[in-house]
Amino acid sequence: MIEQNLITILPELLLAVFAMAALMLGVWRKGSDDLILWLSALALALVGLWIGFGFEGTRSAFDGSYVDDRFARFAKVTILLSASIILLLSREYLIRANLMKFEFPVLIVLATIGMMVMVSAGDLISLYMGLELQ
Questions:
Q1: Percent of the chain scoring above 70 in pLDDT
Q2: What is the 3-state secondary structure (H, E, C) of 57-79?
Q3: CB 65 within 8 A of CB 123
Q4: Is residue 40 within 8 Å of 94, Cβ to Cβ?
Q5: pTM recorded for the entire structure
Q6: N or C: which end of the chain has fewer CB within 10 A?
Q7: How do residues 67-91 score in pLDDT, each as one tens digit?
């Protein structure tokens, strides 16, 4: 049962692990701000394509608190690809305004995870958790 729940929320889990790894990379490696932005945009786009082409049917996890249906997948793909494009479009401005820090793409990835949780919320408490993460 727990394996099926984890498989259902695997895209969010992978993005959360990526966000933590990017945060560690940014702290330990100076000058990796541009690299983290590119990696974040790539990760968001790849997960969006994976969700768009990989899953079918309706699944639920955690006793209906999390629902993965066709509408949720459509909204997730839209959110993920939009976030990826936003990161790429914001790069020039961040460099020009001397605001390029590694925290920005990490925050965008975490906010995107929150939006994905909100889209798949099956009850009020999971909606609230997604809202707080966003």
A1: 100
A2: CCEEECCCCEEECHHHHHHHHHH
A3: yes
A4: no
A5: 0.92
A6: N
A7: 999 999 999 999 999 999 999 999 9
Amino acid at 115: M
- Calculate the dihedral angle through the C-alpha atoms of 64, 15, 89, 130, rounding to the nearest 10 degrees: 30
Q: How far apart are the first and last CA of the chain?
A: 28
Q: What are the Cα distances from residue 15, in Å, to 19, 42, 51, 94, 123?
A: 6, 11, 12, 23, 22
What one-character DSSP code corresponds to residue 9? T
- The span from the CA of 70 to the CA of 59, in Å, is 10
Contact by Cβ (8 Å): 94, 104: yes
Does the structure show a pLDDT above 80 at 11? yes
Residue 66, phi then psi, degrees to nearest 5? -130, 120
Burial class from Cβ neighbours inside 10 Å (0-12, 13-18, 19+) for residue 10 reads middle
Query: What single-letter DSSP state applies at residue 105?
Result: H
Give the β-pairing of 59-61 and 66-68.
antiparallel
**Count helices and strands in the chain by DSSP H and E runs:** 6, 2
